[in-house]
Amino acid sequence: MLDIELLRTFVAIAESGSFTRAAEEVHKTQSAVSMQMKKLEEQIGRPLFERDGRRIRLSRDGLRLLDYAQRLVRLNLEASAAFTDPQLQGSVILGLPDDYDRLLPGVLSAFARTHPHIELAVHCTSSLTLKGCLERGEVDIAIVTLCDMTAPAQVVRREKLHWVSGQGHGAYLGTPLPIAVGAPSCAWRRSATEALDLAGIPYRIAYTSESANALSGAVIAGLAVSILPESAIRPEMRILDERDGFPPLPPCEIGMLRARHATSAIHDALADHIVSRIGNLPAARLEAAE
């Protein structure tokens, strides 16, 4: 019989694409996660992962197991939720920017599994726009980049910002340096240009978009260099640092805003779930948006 806890960790690795991110999600050390996967492979009797350079991906048998594991974990969570939280039902609208599209989908998928009677809708737009959506009651809870605004919020995660270039591309060698950035109001854009100005590095705005996915695409295609938080960096990117001649960048703070009307148990459930899954700071009180 397969251990449901081992399957839960296996699913977290498959959905996050990383042993490190999976360890955060299941609240274990990376070494403990590795030991769990070794035990699961012993139970299955076949290797579940294979190494591709520095990356680890699911083997053919790992892909076969994934479908069964997801269904077993989902059923286990649904059964538990049906008996422990029968009163939690309703709908919640969550706002978030696409800056964190690699960090949050697995978290939200887990919430849907553990709270089958709560209907979750996601509204994706910029952090600044989300503040207005909260004030108008169009979203209940929002995940935002705090340096983009001045609003009372719970800081739930702090990450490094990195200069990134596409693997195998030489955009970072250009003079002036081509950069891909957000709108003039974007805090990451200000951080990038201020750091370059201070270091005396000439640059040009080669690509502008309010979409982090669009900026990532420009970087991967070799059109420009950009800055991204650690959780948004993709395998097709190369991190640039002082050894490459790039100045250091300030950290990025990810926060949670909550509308005044969002005071019910289902709002608490979603907020607590997100903080428990992505938070890497001591807990702080969540305040309603002014």
TrEMBL record:
Keyword vocabulary terms for this entry: DNA-binding, Transcription, Transcription regulation
InterPro entries given in the database record: LTTR (IPR050176), LysR_HTH_N (IPR000847), LysR_subst-bd (IPR005119), WH-like_DNA-bd_sf (IPR036388), WH_DNA-bd_sf (IPR036390)
Keyword hit for DNA damage: no
Gene Ontology MF term list: DNA binding; DNA-binding transcription factor activity
The HTH lysR-type domain, residue ranges: 2-59
Keyword Chaperone in annotation: no
PANTHER family linked: HTH-TYPE TRANSCRIPTIONAL REGULATOR LRHA-RELATED (PTHR30579:SF7), TRANSCRIPTIONAL REGULATOR (PTHR30579)
Family that this chain belongs to: Belongs to the LysR transcriptional regulatory family.
Protein name per the record: Transcriptional regulator, LysR family
Species name: Lutibaculum baratangense AMV1
